[in-house]
Amino acid sequence: MKVLLLKEPKDKESGPDPYIQELGLYGFEATLIPVLSFEFISLESLFEKLSHPECYEGLIFTSPRALEAIKICLKERSKNEAWSKSLKQKWNTKPVYVVGKATASLVEELGLTPQGEESGNAEKLAEYICSREKSNSSALLFPCGALKREVLPTVLREKGIPLESLTVYQTTQHAHLQESLSSYFSQQGIPASLVFFSPSSVKFCLQHIQKLSGDFINHIKFAAIGPTTAKAMEAAGIPVSCTAESPTPQDLATGIQKALHLHNCSVPK
């Protein structure tokens, strides 16, 4: 059975995409189509703030892209040296909160120790942070995207926990999205399951998918990587057949297998 994943591929340097690998173990033939493009901004300002760990209580990351922004900064030799010689050690004395395992692994690549990765979404991470931070502390530094949801900032604000957000990337539609979707549906046909990985992927893809699948759209079992994406799908009128318990390849594969098995769906050849 075919599964279409609407997400960016994992960095080629770090091996095959774990979602394709895991779904393959379940006998699924998975394909990735990149939905989003990212433009990094305010990188000088980001490194300036990272250069002063004494001004902050800790760090928060809810997106792998925010860590990519730091990696781009560290490509500059002088910044890399400053990070390796002292900044990394100083930040390691402070908490580095992350929302999931993918983000946690990128934090580890920077030489930092993540915590909170089991939370799986912004709401639960906010609760986790509130249980550990005091309202009279320094601000937590939160590098984020322009489309960030306000859940985490709102919860922290309500609890009086200082937060300093810095937008370090902007999200746009991938230049080849429509072409890639058309090619997939014409060559591979209707997938048994289709997975959305973000509210943005729902926004950018839904119209194309409806047009390409036509009357067969009811044969597709739509899956969400997490509750935020599931809400966006429901708001757009997409029936959600499964939501991964946590945003990992294992939980997604398990959820899709259950959804397809339960519904015993038939997909046109």
Descriptive overview:
With 269 residues, the protein is α/β, with parallel strands linked by helices. 44% of the residues lie in helices and 20% in strands. The protein contains 11 helices and 11 strands. The protein has helices spanning 18-25, 43-50, 64-73, 77-91, 101-109, 122-130, 151-158, 177-188, 199-213, 227-235, 249-263; strands at 2-6, 29-32, 36-40, 56-61, 96-98, 114-115, 139-145, 163-173, 193-196, 221-224, 240-243. The strands form 2 sheets. It has a 6-stranded mixed β-sheet. Strands 2-1-9-10-11 form a 5-stranded parallel β-sheet, with helices on both faces. Strand 9, helix 9 (199-213) and strand 10 form a beta-alpha-beta unit. Helix 6 (122-130) runs parallel beside helix 7 (151-158). 36% of the residues are buried. Mean pLDDT is 93; it is low at 263-269.
Provide a compact summary of the structure.
With 269 residues, the protein is of the alpha/beta class. It is built from eleven helices and eleven strands. α2 packs across α3 and α8 crosses α9.
